Amino acid sequence: MSTEASASPTSPIRHLGPNWYATVMGTAIVASAGAALPVTVPGLRGACEAVWALAALLLLALLTARALHWAHHPDQARRHLGDAAVAPFYGCLAMALLAVGGSTLSVGTAVIGESAAVAADAVLWTAGTVVGLGAAAAIPYLMVTRHKIAAGDASPVWLLPVVAPMVSAALGPALVAHLPAGQWREALLLGCYGLFGMSLLATLLILPLIFARLVHHGPLPLALTPALFLVLGPLGQSTTAVNAVAAAAPGVVAEPYAHAMAGFAVLYGMPVIGFALLWLALAAAMVVRAARRGMGFTMTWWAFTFPVGTCVTGSAALAHRTGLTALTWLAVGLYALLVGAWAVAGVRTAAGLVSGRLLAAPRPAPAAPLREMARTT
Fold first, then answer.
1. Interval 253-273 mean pLDDT
2. Alpha-carbon distance 300 to 95, whole Å?
3. Which of 102, 236, 260, 294 is least enclosed by beta carbons within 10 angstroms?
4. Is the pTM of this model over 0.90?
């Protein structure tokens, strides 16, 4: 691609926003969630390895395309940061790095070898954590100081930057065993607990705003309705995180802390997964309502993938820890939902790329605020 062509207003990368990293997240979680299932399915491991390889290729392609976007369309890139509806998606960059790193260690080890998988995960986890911490601080700052947000504009998309540290907390414990014994291991493990707390408390600030927006201003606009599934992300990911920390704790932190972490993994995880199922029912009902009113495909459909995948890994971790068959079947059922959603979103995205529709300039937003848009649905 020449500089002149890429700088053209009609360049296919001009409107390539950070939301596209959701395709990487949704693909990588299919691989890692499949590997985490507490059942053995013939052929599943090989399929997960193929999906992991696809996720890695998607990440490389998007990192390249987004670098070109910043290089040749800095005006559009700055406009994205100034847009309250787009800026939170910078959290997806961090989670894409983390998701591919985690799946490389859990799935790709058999393909590229343990040493290469550990090195790749260490690099991607470090980069994803740094980017995630930056997004978790910078995007709320922009929301307060730069973005123009009305009372009825609260959105599940606001969760994206603050949930990125939770992904770091869930995937970091897998690297603990590969560090020197002693302070290095303990620092990483307890650091993951700190990331867990940071993300959890930020999530607890935002969730009431989202529900209050729904109650007082009605359903989201049709195209944004799938974003309700984003609420599942911090719920499933936090359950995964506390179980991952508890699994890595023996021999790393002293007793009684390791034992307490194991108990907390169940005492925290079960209520949160219960609430996740309640929210899943509410979000699914809202999506069915939107579909009956003509909801078409948009990139928000990728919200059906990664958040559901975190509930798979959370349920699977609880199934491993408790031995409950019901949790095993819950994880399997959610994984089937994840694979179906990923296949549909992937096919529709590929079709949109071929037609050029998904990379076209967005339609001008109506002047009415979000609450007025919601009333039309």
1. 95
2. 16
3. 294
4. yes
Q: How far apart are CA 50 and CA 107, in angstroms?
A: 9
Alpha carbon separation from 33 to 94, 176, 291, 323 (Å, rounded): 19, 20, 27, 18
* Under 8 Å between Cβ of 195 and 172: yes
Residue 1 has pLDDT above 60, yes or no: no
Angle at 11 between CA 361 and CA 345, to 5 degrees: 60
CA dist., res. 265 & res. 269, Å (int): 6
On whether the CB atoms of residues 172 and 192 are closer than 8 A, the answer is: yes
Q: How far is CA 273 from the centre of its chain?
A: 17
Inter-residue contact 222 to 295 (CB < 8 Å): yes
Band (pLDDT 50/70/90 cuts) for residue 27 is very high
Other Cβ atoms less than 10 A from the Cβ of 182: the count is 9
Indicate the residue type of 289: R
Tokens of 154: 């609260």
Summarised one tens digit per residue, pLDDT across range 312-345 is 999 999 999 999 999 999 999 999 999 999 999 9
Structure tokens, 325: 């068959």
